[in-house]
Amino acid sequence: MFVDLPESELRQYRSSQADPADFDAFWRDTLASSRRHALGVAVEPVDTGLQTVDVFDMTFAGYEGQPVRAWLRVPHAATGPLATIVQFQGYGGGRARATEDLLWASAGYAHLLVDTRGQGSTWGGGDTPDPEGSGPQGPGFMTRGIDSRETYYYRRVFTDAVRAIEAARSLEVVDSDRIVVLGGSQGGGISLAVAGLVDGLAGVFPRVPFLCDFPRSTTITDSDPYKEIGRFLATHRHKAEAAHGVLAYFDGVNFAKRASARAWFTTALMDPVCPPSTVFGAYNEYAGPKEITVWPYNGHEGGGAYDDEATLRILADLFA
User: Acetyl xylan esterase domain spans which residues (predicted)?
Assistant: First the structure.
């Protein structure tokens, strides 16, 4: 069933999310601190047995120089520079196996699939630890380090993502002027953060994005992962105001206000995980050129393969 506002109201909806006065300074200082560390990009070929796609095990320095893993996939024997898709994973997943997710390289693009620190044990498998400690948290990642913006988990994840773009731009096989970011759910939220923090992207594809419009998303759904925050605040009743103050620095709504690259969003009207109003909360604030595809009869899977096919057509025009 529909889980949210009618589509006509969604297109008019505006999030109540606050825009912290020092939002830009916080992220400028966060990224500057991590940029003191060399990128340290290492790329090693992987023997997969594939004939049309070459796969490389890539490592680069993310937040505060901590190593982050990724798969780099390119068409066999490609020399570049190639238009490139940098992809971020959904909640709980890691970069998975070297022979998975071959679509983008098969279409002729370089494809950097970035691991998510600390995740990868719900599905897919991951190889990047999160060595930072935190205070009390609920199960999952949504409340890890939520007592302050400095310790909050997604400060590290979003910094890793920005550094992934910088690492990609350092590769000879990558055309640094033709990079798009893509992801579904959590990956869509990370893509929005990157769009707000990185200049010169060729495009942004946030599919049913998570991590958007926390004032609404934490109260409108009983589905995880947003419900992790609700359970935490039901226990730590006195922390609600402070927690939302922290979350404002990591909300896709506030990153969307700072984005300039052209964006193609998707949302689904029967999505209980990332309700469509929370997606429109970010979409309606997005500062760059934008389009959104609405899937009326779908849940959190969104358009699935239909989104892939549409993205291939868009990329062909974008990079013609």
Answer: 2-315
